[in-house]
Amino acid sequence: AIIREKYARLLTDLQKDESKDAEEKLKYQTMYEEQLKVELNKQGETTKKAREEAEKKANEAILQLKLQLMPEGEAKEKAMQDDKYKKLRDAVIEDVNLTEEKRNEILALYDKQRAAEDQKKIDDKKKEQEKEQANLLATFTNQKDKELEALRLKYEEQRKIAGENSELQLLIDNSIVTGK
Known about the structure:
The chain is mainly alpha-helical. It is 89% helix and 0% strand. The protein has 5 helices and no strands. The longest helix has 63 residues, at 100-162. It is rod-shaped, with a radius of gyration of 42 Å. The N and C termini lie far apart (104 Å). 0% of the residues are buried.
């Protein structure tokens, strides 16, 4: 509105100016109209950029809130990592001081870094699974060892009770072998 008022005032002053003939007035009027268009376009672009920036910030805030509200776990870690690399990539793409070659090199390095982080997470998860399996095996082995030790002690006790009685010792040995 201010810009339009400015040029309306200039055009009004031009109409009242008696020092210029009709041809000069037409030239000035055309020039003012062109300047008005240019300034309105600039204002429109500025407004559009401001809206886009505000929308971008709002979307970023929404994303951050969603990330905070996500339950802890792999999905949240992945979403946070995606967000981190999106921000890094966007910053490089928007950097007008970089040549296309440097921009592509940096983007490739970010891709490489992300792949390395992903592989590390896979390796860490695999190590954790192997550790859990080893713990389960150790627990199972300890349980079986305890059972075997209990059976051995029971066998020795029965042999002591049997003493010198060879028939009773034979029955005990057969019960150990057959499991009855």
